[in-house]
Amino acid sequence: MLNKNPVWRYVVVLGVLLLAFLYALPNLYPEDPALNISASRGGVISTETTTSLSEQFTKENIDVKALALNEGRLLVRFNSTDDQLKARELASQFLGDNYITALDLAPTTPAWLTAIGASPMTLGLDLRGGVHFLLAVDMKAAIDKNLTDLAQTLRSELRENAIRYRSVQLDLAGAQIGINLRSNDDLAAAQAILKKYDRNLLISAKSDAQVLQVSLSELQLKQIREYALEQNITIIRNRVNEIGVAEPLVQRQGADRIVVQLPGVQDTAKAKEILGATASLEFRLVDEQGDIAAAQAGHVPANAELYVTRDGRPLLLEKRIMLSGEHITGANSSYDEYGRPQVNIKLDTKGGDMLFASSKNAVGRRMASVFIEYKPGTKVAENGTPILVKQQEVINDATIQMRLGRDFVISGLSSPGEAQNLATLLRAGALIAPVQIIEERTIGPSLGMENITLGVSAIIWGMAAVLVFMLVYYKAFGMVANIALVANLVLIVGVMSMIPGATLTLPGMAGIVLTVGMAVDANVLIFERIREELADGRSAQQAIHFGYDRAFATITDSNITTLLVALILFAVGTGPVKGFAVTLAIGIITSIFTAVVGSRLLVNLIWGGRRLQSLPV
Fold first, then answer.
1. Which of 24, 95, 215, 446 has its CA 20 to 30 A from that of 351?
2. pTM above 0.85?
3. Which pLDDT value is given to residue 12?
């Protein structure tokens, strides 16, 4: 019989709608204004600190809804934005610079919904408020580091192959390495060895001076830049996750730019500290044969460099780096047997092998840990941004008691807070190349709430206009289309809430409004086709059947082309464009489901299989 469906189809569609409704439900529960407080350098949030802060809030008549300490982070909920802003000022003054106090919005989803994994949609920066940064990666620093490592490797290669050389000089300004050999025979042998080591190196020989000029090829330079950018993105993302920022956005823009958006964070100074921290470690042997007094007078040995320890002590270290921080895979703070703070380091396999080999003949010698940071200097680049200056400090030096492997300890730290901070930065990873903030914007939570209100109003008024039009123009069939339209909106919200990483932005709301119009357009095509079938003399049941079947091809073609455009926008777009593309793509799929499948089941349920003289369409 025409227009009759088996029960299982109704069960499947109802099941899908019920599931979408359950996962869309958390969005009906408004979020609480909150403060997210986490420890920064030198600070650890304790129960005593939490109690003292709570007493300060009570003293200043700030109404606290709830206060919870979880995994070292403090979440304070409030009943109003005014209390939240007052509390932020008070907390910043009371806690000082050792803590990051960020404005946040805490979900109020009931426990039974949380138990099934239901949570509100993730809101973008334009709806939630927060900070936006555009970072520029210092590619020259990345290339300089690779050249420095290459010079050290070339020295080792020449020594292992018994090739005599006078010096290996690094020219960072010219981006090349000069190797001064002792004879033309050594020159030819060295050239053959280096070509065998890496065929991509550009090597030119000056036989009259027994000098080899080694530089990186364009392919190698491109690979270095790509690696530096991708690794910095990964490291910054890890670093932001370490301090607990909810749903951060870290993505590439262009050849050497990184976009970072931190929803809920309003303190740009603290955010800069998180992102700009370029802490790294280098491990070098102490040159105990060198004359420190002569080095301080300017006569530094060719194979050594002069450093200063944190207590002001001069120290000569070998230029050769035993190990760099990029091989650190784990770091956590602890205490030694005397209760002094220390950091336990874990290396990857390659790093462990390197340290094991380099410490083979160094048992009994002292090894120094050099802490490296890049900070803005007094000089300014052409684009107006301060030029980063490399700052190095020896944080400890200790005697190597045995050959080192993948696990070892850094001691000599001044406080538990410093040990925890160093462990956090090393665990998150050291930036491959320094970054410079070239653009920053702050969006307040009040502006975000206003955007939400305006966006929701646009959706409501847009839907209301469509619902009224369909009801007036298509009568009872218009009511079916309206039910499908509401179901479509529930499906969009439910799917957006279920997909990990899907973020609703202001352009995304525009995508929902556009989808509402596109969804009803499918019903218009179907209903107009049904009218045409009735005008051609078909029965009511035949008109319904052929109306849906023959409109399906047109609906599919138009929606697939739009879906392809949405996928292209998602693939090549960034930020707001991606937000628009996500909601548009989801809306297209759900609108086909509700208009073609959902409305047809409802029409068949009401009018299918009955003897009808006419249809209310």
1. 215
2. no
3. 92
